[in-house]
Amino acid sequence: MRIDIATLFPEMCEAILSESIVGRARKKGELEIYCHQIRDYTNDKHRRVDDIPYGGGMGMVMQADPIYNCYNAVCEQLGAKPHTIYMTPKGSVFNQKKAVQLAQLDNIFLLCGHYEGVDQRILDKIVDEEISIGDYVLTGGELPAAVLTDAVARMCDGVLSSPECFQDESHFGGLLEYPQYTRPEIWQEEAVPSVLLSGHHKNIAEWRLKKSLEITKEKRPDMYEAYINNSEKCQK
Ligand code: ADE
Question: In the chain, at which end, N or C, are there fewer CB atoms within 10 A of the end residue's CB?
């Protein structure tokens, strides 16, 4: 998979996406991520990329042209149009289901907004969908783009050692993950649940499902409700 991020702060995205599992996958060539400086695509002699809003109001608006030039340069490299997402608090809220969908794609282009927004005409021209990472407003789309990229990239082939690494965890099957334990067996007089030491795979799986259900019911009653409704539907 290849992800292109168009931003005024490429170093911000690079700082996050060069580390840990995603950074390693990039070095191994399992994943291509490019962070583009939109300012490099302006024809303005002062390298301006924004201007005051028509109709008046606070702040500056990012201009269409530099973004369009950046997008076109990426399209030319790919020989195709990438699935294009604008990161904005106005978008639909990101979740694991959307991450799974996006992980099936070959090319994604992420546009990070800044200032008071982006000229609507470029959004109408290139954007396939708008995504928010939650109901709060950040200073720009860079952290949201890095969050989305991390969530999507870890499900691409070759990034994690096996699909089981993400198929078992919180949100994947509609439940939160069961508790995990590691050595030592007793820590500050607290023992690891004995079933986990039993080597009995069926009992362990049952215990984990029971814990997942309990935790989800307590912490995310909305997810629990949806899971139960869905399982009832599947049994009909
Ligand atoms: N830009 C600013 N806030 C954002 C958010 N919550 N999600 C996506 N992009 C954003």
Answer: C
